[in-house]
Design brief:
The protein is mainly alpha-helical. It is built from 15 helices and no strands. Helix 12 runs antiparallel to helix 15 and helix 14 runs antiparallel to helix 15.
Length: 313
C-alpha cells in the first residue's frame, strides 16, 4: 500500500514528485488600460519628440533651398563669434547648478529624513516643494524683484556684497551663479521630496543593524544611504542636465528687463532663437539644436553608466 505524501511536501518539492501546475494566466500588470496609457505617451513622444528631432536633423544637413549642405551649417554656427561664449556660459551654469543640486538636495533630503518628528518632517517637505509650484517665467519675474536692491526683501544682504543697483547685480560675470540659484530655488524642492521617498524605502532593519554595530549618523549616510541613493542621484542628474542645456527663459527675461545689459545671445538656445527668428536661418538654428542634443545625450550616458541607473539589484 502506497501512502501519499502530505500536500505540504508536494509544495516543497519532494524528489520524484512534480509540483502542481498553476493555470497559465495574464502576467501581472499587463492590462488593457496599461497599454492605453503607454500608447498615449508613445503618440505624444513621437509627435513632440521624435518627429521634431528628425525634422531638425533634416534642416541641419540642408540649406535654405533644400539642397544637401553637409556639415556647412555646423561649421557656420561653430565659427560664429557668439557660439563659444554661449557654450562657456551654459557650461559654467551647468557645473554650478549640478554640483549644488547634488550636494544640497542630497544633504537636505538626509536632514529631512533624520527629523523624527512627523509634523516637522511634513512641514519641511512642504516648504521645500513650495517654490516648484511657480512656473519658470513667474519664478524669474519674482527674482527680478529679489535681485533689485531698491525693491528686494534682502536688499541689506545685496548692499553688504557691494551691489547698489539692479545692473550691478546682473553683470555677465555673475549670471551663471544667479541662474543656478534661480534653477535650484525652483526645482530642488521636488527632488528633495523624491529623495526623501527613496530614503524611506531603505530597510529600517539595515539601518538599525548599523546602529547596533556602532555606526553614527554620518557613517550610516556615507556607507548605506548614499550608495543606495546612487541611481536616484543619477536620474536627477540626467533630468537636470536635459533641462539645464535648454537655458532660455531666465536670460531672455533678464535681457528684456535690463535693456540688453544681459545679451540676447547669452545661451545656446537664445543663439538658436536669434538664428531662426532674427536672421531667418532655420538651418543654422537646427544645427545648434542638434549639437545641444548630442552633447546632452553623451553627458546623460555618463550619468547613466556611472550611476548604474539600469543595473539590476
Amino acid at each position: 500500500m502506497t501512502i501519499a505524501p502530505p500536500s505540504d511536501q508536494l509544495a516543497a518539492g519532494v524528489p520524484g514528485r512534480r509540483r502542481p501546475v498553476r493555470p497559465a494566466g495574464r502576467a501581472p500588470g499587463r492590462t488593457p488600460i496599461g497599454y492605453l496609457f503607454v500608447s498615449l505617451y508613445a503618440l505624444l513622444a513621437l509627435a513632440f519628440g521624435v518627429f521634431p528631432s528628425l525634422y531638425a536633423v533634416v534642416l541641419a544637413f540642408t540649406n535654405a533651398d533644400g539642397g544637401f549642405a553637409g556639415a556647412g551649417n555646423f561649421t557656420k554656427v561653430v565659427g560664429d563669434f557668439r557660439f563659444w561664449p554661449a557654450v562657456l556660459h551654459v557650461t559654467l551654469y551647468l557645473v554650478i547648478w549640478l554640483v549644488g543640486l547634488v550636494v544640497f538636495v542630497v544633504g537636505l533630503s538626509l536632514l529631512v529624513h533624520a527629523v523624527r518628528v512627523r509634523w516637522a518632517s511634513t512641514a519641511l517637505r512642504f516648504v521645500y516643494y513650495l517654490p516648484g509650484a511657480l512656473a519658470g517665467a513667474s519664478s524669474v519675474l519674482l527674482w527680478l524683484f529679489v535681485l533689485d536692491p531698491t525693491a528686494s526683501p534682502v536688499s541689506g544682504l545685496l548692499r553688504a556684497f557691494g551691489f547698489g543697483s539692479f545692473v550691478a547685480v546682473i553683470q555677465p560675470g555673475h549670471l551663471p551663479a544667479i541662474f543656478a540659484i534661480i534653477a535650484f530655488w525652483t526645482g530642488a524642492g521636488g527632488w528633495i521630496v523624491i529623495m526623501y521617498g527613496a530614503l524611506n524605502n531603505i530597510s529600517t532593519e539595515m539601518l538599525e543593524a548599523a546602529q547596533v554595530d556602532g555606526a553614527n549618523a554620518v557613517q550610516i549616510a556615507l556607507r548605506i544611504q548614499l550608495p543606495l541613493l546612487r541611481k536616484w542621484i543619477a536620474y536627477m542628474g540626467v533630468m537636470s542636465l536635459a533641462a539645464g542645456t535648454q537655458l532660455f527663459v531666465e536670460p531672455q527675461l533678464l535681457s528684456q528687463a535690463s535693456n540688453a545689459v544681459v545679451p540676447n545671445d547669452y545661451s545656446l538656445n537664445q543663439l538658436a532663437y536669434q538664428y531662426a527668428f532674427q536672421q531667418n536661418d532655420f538651418n543654422g538654428a537646427a544645427a545648434i539644436s542638434l549639437i545641444l542634443l548630442v552633447v546632452a545625450l553623451l553627458l546623460s550616458w555618463v550619468f547613466v553608466t556611472r550611476g548604474g541607473l539600469f543595473e539590476k539589484e
